[in-house]
């Protein structure tokens, strides 16, 4: 599944914030989440996966599973944008949010490990002779295909950049800190409950020679898998 849509992120953030927002703040969130959605989508599209160690067998039809392997992706970059008068506070707020998201998303592919992915295909081997094996991964949600370190602490990173005199986050009246909390929690929740559950690890292939019975053990898949 593509990244969560900007209107969904905005609506959940407003609900988490729990206070009245003016028209200009709503318009700002529209612009912010449009940039986040775009960056998230590009980040997902940059990823490929493979080199899972396959085990399986079959004569005619072939079935097996893979584990290990790698997920590779480019850094997530939220592009800066103009809004109204581009006040120093607004620019600093936007940069803090965007940099915090980037810092928490970018390490995800490196830490992710595939625990089990099913593969099906065809085998030209016979019970007594080796033969070619071709197989493709069975699409599986990332949540069930493996595990990694999910983004967390986005708000804390962003707030560490929102320093005085422009921001007084320790004040009980500091609404900007509460908005950062709402944005951070929304993105983290949607990542775990929606994106991981609906984004499919798909289209990873294997080609090789199976032993008699089409037995494959310890051979890697190709690095051509995609996230869809």
Characterization of the model:
The chain has one domain. Helix content is 41%, strand content 27%. A hairpin with a 2-residue loop joins β1 and β2. The radius of gyration is 23 Å and the shape is elongated. It has 228 residues and is an alpha+beta fold. The protein is built from 7 helices and 10 strands. Strands 1, 2, 3, 4, 6, 8 and 9 form a 7-stranded antiparallel β-sheet that branches. α1 packs across α2, α1 crosses α7 and α6 runs antiparallel to α7. The protein starts with 5 loop residues before the first helix and ends with a strand.
Question: What secondary-structure arrangement, pairings included, does this model have?
Answer:
Blueprint: H1 6-17, H2 23-45, E1 48-57, E2 60-72, H3 88-105, H4 108-111, E3 113-123, E4 131-137, E5 140-141, H5 142-145, E6 146-147, H6 154-161, H7 175-198, E7 200-202, E8 205-210, E9 216-220, E10 226-227
Antiparallel strand pairs: 1-2, 1-9, 2-3, 3-4, 3-6, 4-8, 5-7, 7-10
Helix pairs in contact: 1-2, 1-7, 3-6, 6-7
Residue-averaged pLDDT, rounded? 95
Instruction: List the uncertain runs.
Output: none
The level of helicity is 40-55%
- Total E-strand runs: 10
Feature tags:
228 residues; alpha+beta; three-stranded antiparallel β-sheet; 7 helices; 27% strand; elongated
In short:
The protein is α+β, with helices and mostly antiparallel strands.
């Amino acid at each position: 599944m593509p990244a969560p849509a900007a209107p969904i992120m905005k609506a959940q953030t407003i609900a988490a914030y729990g206070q009245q927002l003016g028209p200009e703040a709503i318009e700002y969130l529209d612009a912010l989440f449009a940039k986040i959605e775009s960056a998230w989508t590009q980040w997902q599209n940059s990823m490929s996966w493979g080199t899972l160690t396959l085990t399986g067998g079959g004569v005619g039809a072939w079935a097996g599973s893979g584990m290990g392997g790698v997920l590779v992706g480019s850094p997530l970059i939220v592009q800066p944008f103009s809004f109204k008068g581009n006040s120093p506070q607004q620019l600093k707020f936007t940069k803090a949010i965007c940099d915090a998201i980037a810092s928490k998303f970018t390490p995800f592919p490196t830490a992710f490990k595939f625990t089990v992915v099913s593969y099906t295909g065809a085998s030209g081997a016979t019970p007594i002779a080796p033969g070619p094996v071709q197989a493709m991964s069975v699409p599986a949600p990332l949540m069930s295909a493996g595990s990694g370190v999910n983004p967390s602490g986005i708000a804390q990173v962003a707030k560490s950049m929102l320093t005085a005199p422009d921001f007084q986050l320790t004040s009980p009246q500091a609404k900007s800190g509460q908005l950062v909390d709402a944005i951070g929690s929304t993105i983290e929740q949607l990542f775990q409950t929606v994106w991981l559950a609906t984004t499919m690890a798909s289209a990873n292939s294997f080609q090789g020679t199976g032993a008699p019975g089409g037995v494959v053990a310890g051979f890697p898949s190709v690095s051509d898998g995609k996230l869809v």
